[in-house]
Amino acid sequence: MRTLLFILLTFSTFLSFAQEDKEEEKLLATKKANNYVYEGNELATSEQFVPAEKEYRKAMSAQPSNVAGAYNLATSYYKKNNYEEALYRYQQAAKNATTKTEKHKAFHNIGTVLMQNKQCKEAVEAFKNALRNDPTDDETRYNLGLAKECAEQQKDDQKDDDKDKDKDKKDENKDDQKDKKDENKDNQDKKEGDDKKDDKGNPKDEKKDEGKGDDKKEQKQPQQQPGQLSPQQIKNLLEAMNNQEQRTQEKINAEKQKGVKIKTDKDW
Hints:
Layout lengths: L1 H44 L3 H14 L4 H13 L3 H14 L3 H17 L3 H14 L4 H58 L10 H4 L5 H6 L10 H28 L10
Helix pairs in contact: 1-2, 1-3, 2-3, 3-4, 4-5, 5-6, 5-7, 6-7
């Protein structure tokens, strides 16, 4: 029993010493960080922002939860127009803040950075959070009004952009439909053109295809070519020539008979 009590007392004493050591380390870290912040503030006052930034970084390294170090480091970034880093450090300060005053300052500056980034809707929420921690700050209230107007304007601009995108999309769809219609027409015209060609790709003679059933008739009755006589005309012409030749022959014979001497019964 005595051994158990001894062990418990020893363990309790050890925990007490360990807790005291942690508290002492925390106090030392806070003191060290505050000294770095103080040095940084002195440098920032004399507009030596680069050395001041280094001191604030040292403060954050010594104690990451140090609100003053994060806040002042954010301010140095803001003055250099590095809004991304400034926003991160102000958010860090707001997260670690333990008093309303610290939270109010952090959220106020978060809103300011968001306005610089044209993030008006988010800035409205930041200024609201700042006013929740200090409703008497007129500057924060004024900035909240500006942020609301900016957010409304961005909302209207977004609606206009959406309308323009919808219109462009509709016009694009119309153009696509027209292109498809033209393409279909071209394909149809091409098909019709191919139908009029033979296997070798030469144009078909549609006149030859017409009246194929009359080929035999045309062979039996060839068409009369310009400048040629028809068979009937040739026949008539031959008959006329024969008749003319016969008449001519008859005339010649008649002339011969007139010149022939007539024999008598008595001889001389």
